[in-house]
Amino acid sequence: MKSPDPLDPQPLNSRPTAFEQQVSQKSKRKVQARQEGDRSIWAGLGLFGMVGWSVMIPTLLGIALGIWIDKRFPSPYSWTLMLLFVGVVLGCWNAWYWIQKEQK
């Protein structure tokens, strides 16, 4: 049986390790980014605007619905504050979704 040569680039186990897979994926992303080139400032501002709108719309809808509920059905709890929180959470999730989609 032949002993493994430490200078041999081909390991005995030909299956790549997790680290090798991670390095391979990162290098592929770098090559793809170089091929696509730089994005314009307008593309960056568009993404910035999309994130802003995707957080603002659910927040404002939550506030509006909360005010409506508070005026129609008085209670010791503030529906406006609760739905504001729900709107911000939904908006942040929505913004995260758009950013993840843009990165791919």
Mind sketching the topology for me?
Elements: H1 18-36, H2 41-72, H3 79-103
Helix pairs in contact: 2-3
Structure description:
The protein is mainly alpha-helical and 104 residues long. Helix 2 packs antiparallel against helix 3 (79-103). It is elongated, with a radius of gyration of 25 Å. Helix content is 73%, strand content 0%. The chain has a domain at 57-104.
Describe what is shown at a glance:
The protein has helices at 18-36, 41-72, 79-103. By secondary structure, the chain is mainly alpha-helical.
Keywords:
104 residues; mainly alpha
Q: Spans of 5+ residues with little confidence (pLDDT < 50)?
A: none
Gyration radius, in Å: 25 Å
Largest sheet: none
- Name the helix and strand elements from N-terminus to C-terminus, one letter apiece: HHH
Q: How many DSSP E strands?
A: 0
Please state the overall shape, judged from the principal axes of the Cα atoms.
elongated
Strand percent estimate: under 5%
Could you say which structural class the secondary elements and strand pairing correspond to?
A: mainly alpha
Question: Which percent bin holds the helix content?
Answer: over 70%
Q: Give the helix tally.
A: 3
Separation of the first and last Cα atoms: 47 Å
Mean pLDDT: 82
